[in-house]
Specification:
Blueprint lengths: L2 E6 L5 H12 L3 E8 L14 E5 L5 H13 L1 H4 L8 E5 L1 H14 L5 E4 L12 H14 L2 E6 L2 H12 L5 E3 L4 E2 L3 H5 L13 E9 L2 H13 L4 E9 L7 H7 L3 E3 L9 H5 L4 E3 L9 H4 L3 H8 L3 E5 L3 H9 L3 E3 L4 H8 L4 H12 L7 E2 L1 H37 L1
Parallel strand pairs: 1-2, 1-4, 2-3, 4-5, 5-6, 6-7, 8-15, 9-10, 9-12, 10-11, 12-13, 13-14
Amino acid sequence: MLHILYFVHDLADPAVRRRVLMLQAGGALVTLAGFRRDDNALAAIHGVEPIELGKTQDAQFAQRVAAVARSAAKLRGALRSVARPDVIIGRNLEMLTLANRAKSVFGGDMPIVYECLDIHRLLLRNDVVGGALRSAERHFGSQAALLITSSPAFVERYFRPRSGLRLPVMLLENKVLALEPAASAVAPVVRPPAAGKPWKIGWFGALRCRKSLTLLDEFSRRMDGRFEIVLRGRPAYSEFDDFDGFVRKAPFMHFAGAYKNPEDLQAIYNDVQFSWAIDFFEEGLNSSWLLPNRLYEGGLYGAVPIAIEGTETARFLASRKIGLTLDAADATQLAALLGGMDEQRYVAAFDAVASQDRKQWMIDRADCHGLVQRLASLTRANEQIAEIKALSQLHRNRGGLQ
């Protein structure tokens, strides 16, 4: 059984839980280690007791760097009860540094995988800070055998032209984990609102975008209750002045709390007609390049996605002729896009989404096995390189004896 040591930035992140479940479903044994930003019982993984390396905070990069440095100095002790892994994965740049440190702790030649699913804005700065971080990424990434990322735009806009990394790339999109056959067999059901009830737009997942929150509130007020905004997931409170207070004062918006991914997805998406697949958190940079979880979740369960022009999400939808695209980020444009919504137009948009191949929205057990096999192939490649080096050394030694 392939043993994977997985370093993560946030043990409370539901996406971390999903990745561990994928690796386990693919037949791997996973040792999870990382930092915790808050408590989230819904992100717990049955049978996995993580190695907690410390506590970090959202939007506090310097604090996180210091925490990682302290952890690196004590990593040998933290890993003393861990068996030698076959592969080490570092989820983002901070964790890549710990993956390198762990490799030296174990004293082996196990491959390192760099998993990067967001390009932090500091990496994109054209100043000393940005240059230093890219230099660090090149240094630690030089020891990696594979880069895992979730959007082709990350490769096209950052990794190839700017990062300086020259690694094989595995594109692993943020698809829904569907391990049970029944999950792929259930077709989405069209769900126009009952007479007199509002249309619902769901904004689910990592809620970190002030601009989206303000825009959706203004739009729903303009529509005077014809549209309701449903929020679910984990608000990044550091990004809002007062998230809870803002939502309480919004007449046509409510926060319905956290949910378990993937177990609760069908129920929460069946409660809405549209999915907000827009993020202005790092507008023009990471937010324009990513393909968010909610794009795949909504697609699988028939929620019509709303994207904004000029983003990778909009290109994804346009290539499939599905979804709705907003021309500009303001409530007037959104009202023009959705204000005339009726059942006939909604059903046509729903049918376009529902007719897509469901495999493009989901990852099944076969995909999980494929992921683990790809990781296992890295260890075989390392073994072959070691054998070649040993044979070369043997030939050199024989030559010296003649």
